[in-house]
Design brief:
alpha+beta, 18 strands, 4-stranded antiparallel beta sheet, rod-shaped, disordered N terminus, 6-stranded mixed beta sheet, Immunoglobulin-like, 2 domains
């Protein structure tokens, strides 16, 4: 049996098939192209007879549901098996107009009669969607002290500024971060929903900060991704906040009856005119009475 083992060792030693270059971009923006490269090398004197190359795709962390994207079998023309795949030289493929559903694990398979090699990596297609969009409002009162901007009616606490931020059609899964002059602000509430068919997310969050701290500060909401592999520009919406002192007066002055009667005569309008007419009539009556007596 020793010669069988020796033969197997010699065969194994002659298997020189290898992948010399394999690249899958970690992330691309939606609408861009993603170029995937898979180049192999043969041993000197080895032929490509019975060799084939295939590309596969699967959702990340779900390799059991993979789909074939490309194949090149010796003696046949290279074939793309999906509409947005462009075939290039040396078994490279390009995903054109990448979209969030293209995110996933891409695998290159190279095989011949003796050996099979597989290499894979993940690609994330990202988009900021519509966001972030930050809205800032001054709460009427937050005198119950719970930080939600809702009043309990006694007006005995400092007013709050409420920050509401939204973003729709975002990929991959997003997060929203609030800051005041660059300092982090705790999020009061966040809700994220996912659309499986489009592989995009909608997110809404809110936070609150005291009016005193917000006055003159730059309030910001930044969109970030929970997947740290995504490299992207900064997505942030900032709002410089100026506090209107007239709208923040807790107890506005009210005009009372006493205030109204204290107005100067020239500002009293028809009341002053009526008094003057009455005095003229009295004087006229006295003159007529004196004429009658005389």
């Amino acid at each position: 049996m020793w010669f069988v083992a020796l033969f197997l060792c010699l065969v194994a030693g002659s298997r020189q098939l290898s992948v010399s270059e394999f690249t899958v971009p970690r992330s691309v923006a939606a609408g861009e192209e993603a170029r995937l490269t898979c180049r192999y090398e043969l041993a000197p004197g080895e032929t490509e007879q019975a060799l084939y190359v295939k590309w596969w795709w699967a959702p990340i962390n779900a390799s059991d549901s993979r789909a074939q994207l490309y194949q090149r079998i010796m003696g046949h023309k290279p074939t793309a098996l999906r509409h947005n795949i462009r075939v290039e030289a040396f078994d490279s493929i390009v995903i054109t107009g990448a979209a969030p559903p293209d995110s996933g694990r891409y695998e290159c398979e190279v095989s011949n009669a003796f050996d099979e090699i597989r290499k894979h990596d993940d690609l994330i297609v990202y988009t900021s969607g519509s966001g972030p969009e930050l809205n800032v409002t001054l709460a009427e009162d937050d005198d119950d002290g719970d930080g939600d901007g809702n009043a309990d009616g006694d007006g005995d606490s400092e007013r709050n500024v409420v920050l509401s931020c939204t973003a729709t059609d975002v990929a991959p899964e997003p997060d929203l971060v609030f800051t005041v002059d660059g300092q982090p602000l705790d999020t009061n509430h966040k809700e994220v929903t996912w659309s499986p068919s489009e592989n995009v997310y909608d997110v809404v969050a809110n936070a609150s900060v005291s009016a005193a701290r917000a006055a003159g500060a730059t309030l910001a909401c930044e969109l970030v991704y929970t997947d740290a592999r995504v490299t992207h520009p900064q997505y942030v919406h900032t709002v410089p906040f100026q506090l209107d002192t007239e709208t923040t007066t807790e107890y506005p002055l009210e005009t009372t009856t006493a205030d109204a009667t204290a107005m100067p005569l020239e500002n009293q309008g028809d009341g002053a005119t009526g008094l003057t007419a009455f005095s003229f009539l009295v004087l006229a009556a006295l003159q007529i009475a004196m004429l009658v007596v005389n």
